[in-house]
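*** Protein under study ***
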Amino acid sequence: MKKYILILFFMTVTAFSQQYEKKWSQILVQENKGKIKTATELVDAIYKKAKKENNEVQIIKCFFYKSKYLQVLEEDAQSKIIRNLKAEINTATIPSKAILNLVYAKCLSDYNEEYENFGVAVVDSSSLENENSENLIDSATVNGYNTSEDIDKIFEKTLENEATLKTTALTNYESIFNFFTLEKLKKENLFDYLLKENIAFYKSKINEWQFEAKQFEAHKDNLLGHSDAFIKLKLELIEDESLKKVLSLYQKLEADAPTIENKLERILFCSNYLLKSDENLLTTLLDLEKQSSENIPLQKIKLEKATIFGKLASKETHPDYNNKALAELESILNTNNNSNTFKLAQQAKEELLSKTILIETQKNTYSNEHARAFIRYKNTDNLT
């Protein structure tokens, strides 16, 4: 839980509203001096002001700061953070409640994973609202308490009130989601963001090696196809519940927002986890590329194509694939937008063009024994 709270905290540091900027600056000064108690008192003052003004963005920001400081000041910080979080959930509006439930679910998930073999305080999440404070924390061991079911229920709560979440722009929470570009904030609504967070959670519960490609080959056209074809896929054929959940969430996401980036993420998932065919993926990417005119998704598609060309490159079967990979990377780098994909393309180009020589010899030899060496090389044709 500590890991996730800190990640969320750093997401909120840079984008302060003008009204609160001076007070938050004072808090950072005290924090940098190591005066955590003083910083906590200042956060409490902002919290009271935000509560009075019903400024939920600032309330959420205060929760992140208070949680960070609690972990420094309090021995039993985890339980107190959960109490504070539950209290905020109970009084928040629908959009803020959804965000806080996401934090709640991730906290428990992280806490459950980190302390899997230890006795911990586990929140009874059978009811998220109208609880007495005395009943907020139940003591139990992870092994004796089915926390995964409770975490699943909380994730489900993040997607309740779908209509309201769809009409809530992420720009309303810009100071919390400042890790997104303004362009992305304007394009996405809160429901789509929460869907992606749910997908990420359920994806973490499955592994690529669990599934055999032959089980899904008959459904290749749906899994790798256009949004309409994918949404029509009947999920009754899926036995693994977590996989079924992931695919159903992808279907919901594309039904609401069939963007190129959303299609690409689903296609990559289905290819990597289910179909496991670089050739099929390459064909699909070539088709998807024709549908896009925006730089960011085009760069992502080209990077995936370059990766496949590099993997399949062979003097016997595909002697031109390294050159094709390089051409895709150069195309990305020609659009110098300093995106994450641009940076990954720079790294990939360096790796593709790097000169390497690997020599393997027999581990043990007799005196004066002739021995062979196995030499692997790239981008070089001599040892001088």
The first strand starts at residue 119 and ends at 123. Confidence is low (pLDDT under 50) at residues 12-16, 117-146. The chain has two domains: 2-188, 206-287. Residues 2-188 form one domain.
